[in-house]
């Protein structure tokens, strides 16, 4: 593939183009034949926008500017690696979200991936000597972001150990969905699961509700979750369907009003329009031996009207 300003066409109007965002950072724009689009910043390989064929935004991003202490936009889909949460002196949620990635011109084959009718880009991050100072392991992290003809957004990450010794890591797609009103949102698919509650020193609880609803701050990791969950937005009469592979857990977060007011990169009332929910590896770190590779996949879809648990049970198709 080429570089800045070039356009590559796979089918009809599907295309990828390189532009710059409002901060002057290179970004990739994917489009499909129906008018849907996605934007991916080379800063952190962070998806910053996902729009449907009506050009309606589906991901939340904060309207507030980026604080000098942070390089990551609050919102979109940041990638968390090699940890999720704080870990010693390492950066919160890992350091790859603050690194400049490169377009991968010659990615290795991705088994089971059908590129028919899809716009996609491959990005690559390799560990540097600077990275080794805070996390002493050599790795390659690849990300493919794909926009299908039906508007589905897929992220496929591959972590490869190019080290002389095994290493362990955590991982998360910290997906910020744009919702009409968090108080009117319901999640199905996490019922009866155990979760770690970060508001109670990661104490373990069991979910008791028929569905997850929101009335206050939530910061949890649901463990060994199904590969399909649904986020129902009653006011917009639409449902986000989240499918995942290789990601056993689900991170769930909304800061609510009190914490929002203390966050420099989030508006006081913006918590009402956001829900952070995504596939993750949290409870049990993954370990890779030298030359081994791990793959994690996340697919986001939007369907109209309501979505029920019975359909969830039947709709467990792969990515």
TrEMBL record:
<keyword id="KW-0413">Isomerase</keyword>
<dbReference type="GO" id="GO:0005975">
    <property type="term" value="P:carbohydrate metabolic process"/>
</dbReference>
<protein>
    <recommendedName>
        <fullName>glucose-6-phosphate 1-epimerase</fullName>
        <ecNumber>5.1.3.15</ecNumber>
    </recommendedName>
</protein>
<dbReference type="GO" id="GO:0030246">
    <property type="term" value="F:carbohydrate binding"/>
</dbReference>
<dbReference type="Pfam" id="PF01263">
    <property type="entry name" value="Aldose_epim"/>
</dbReference>
<dbReference type="InterPro" id="IPR008183">
    <property type="entry name" value="Aldose_1/G6P_1-epimerase"/>
</dbReference>
<comment type="similarity">
    <text>Belongs to the glucose-6-phosphate 1-epimerase family.</text>
</comment>
<dbReference type="GO" id="GO:0005737">
    <property type="term" value="C:cytoplasm"/>
</dbReference>
<dbReference type="InterPro" id="IPR014718">
    <property type="entry name" value="GH-type_carb-bd"/>
</dbReference>
<dbReference type="GO" id="GO:0047938">
    <property type="term" value="F:glucose-6-phosphate 1-epimerase activity"/>
</dbReference>
<dbReference type="InterPro" id="IPR025532">
    <property type="entry name" value="G6P_1-epimerase"/>
</dbReference>
<dbReference type="InterPro" id="IPR011013">
    <property type="entry name" value="Gal_mutarotase_sf_dom"/>
</dbReference>
